[in-house]
Design brief:
Elements: E1 2-5, E2 11-14, H1 23-32, E3 36-43, E4 48-53, E5 58-64, E6 66-70, E7 75-79, E8 83-86, E9 92-95, E10 102-108, E11 116-117, H2 125-135
Pfam family, one: Cupin_2
Protein name: Cupin type-2 domain-containing protein
InterPro entries: Cupin_2, RmlC-like_jellyroll, RmlC_Cupin_sf
């Protein structure tokens, strides 16, 4: 994997292989970096996740599709095979600017999940679960 260290502490890994990534390969990469997955999430087309942060390093290992993380300084788009590690306390939004689903492992070093919301919680796991319940 090609590694890029960005000014705000974010680390980006780009997929260098001539084969498409699989769930198995991406989970292995996540583990090799010292992380544990707490979710394999599929985001629908035009997905939007409001501004939030975590009190730990968050990792996202993309299996398919692409999504853009919006930070105060700049956006970062990841696609299948890429990995982004976001330092603790960095607010970010995640937006899929296209009509394809995005699938990725989400994780932390401990495998635990916690979040601080700065927006309305749109697109959070809790928000998505309540939408399913309300749709019945």
């Amino acid at each position: 994997m090609y590694q890029f260290k960005l000014p705000n502490g974010i680390v980006l890994y780009k997929w260098p292989h001539k084969i498409d990534p699989t769930e198995e390969l991406m989970k292995k990469e996540l583990i090799n970096l010292g992380f544990k997955a707490y979710d394999l999430q599929t985001c629908g087309p035009w997905f939007e996740r409001s501004s939030h942060a975590h009190n730990y390093e968050e990792i996202r290992a993309a299996v398919e599709g692409c999504i853009t993380f919006h930070f105060a300084e700049f956006p970062i788009t990841i696609e299948a095979g890429d990995i982004v590690i976001i330092p603790p306390g960095i607010p970010h939004e995640a937006i899929s600017h296209n009509s394809r689903p995005f699938k990725a492992f989400k994780g932390s070093r401990s495998g635990e999940r916690s979040v601080t919301e700065f927006g309305d919680g749109r697109g959070s796991i809790e928000d998505l679960a309540s939408q399913k319940i309300n749709k019945g």
